[in-house]
Amino acid sequence: MAPRTSHRAAPVHARLDDVTVQEALAALADPVRLRLVRELAGSADWSRACGSFDVPVGKAALSHHFAALRAAGLVEQRDEGPRRVNRLRREEFDARFPGLLALVLRGD
Amino acid sequence: MAPRTSHRAAPVHARLDDVTVQEALAALADPVRLRLVRELAGSADWSRACGSFDVPVGKAALSHHFAALRAAGLVEQRDEGPRRVNRLRREEFDARFPGLLALVLRGD
Fold this sequence. Notes:
Two copies of one chain form a homodimer.
Chain A: H1 21-28, H2 31-41, E1 48-49, H3 59-71, E2 75-80, E3 83-88, H4 90-96, H5 100-106
Antiparallel strand pairs in A: 1-3, 2-3
């Protein structure tokens, strides 16, 4: 039997060209997702598992928020054994929506 | 008796310094409001009454959307007799959130 590292399907990622500005704004306009993005921006790529963020939501809601961030091209995820780890797609997102991440990470 | 031009209270406008990036993003992440902003951007200041926009919502919803745009510092309104007319606060908004309006008006 092949080793099984996760029960979940591998995460699906957005092509940045397919993301509209409205989708990008909607992804970032939510306070929980804004916090996830800001925390990710301050962390090394692939260093943060989904459960490691300080946000006041349950597991199902957190999954939903990460799916929204993936769909907007903001986050890439991969499974490492039982952990799903993340990186901010900073360069790709910035190429598609110049300046938007910088505004969001300014923190005001 | 003083002339009465409107039954409504005069619109209240946001101080841009008080608008957070999350509020700005949330105001722009809605498809109806995005359309209002884009139509306003293509119109001369004060040339557009609230009822003149091609959006698929009723009067109460439209009022709500304009209130959200005012609160985010995107729109200034004034009453001219029975009409409430609008201008996009382009320069002020751009000074507070550089590049954000440009992204939104890019139209993709």
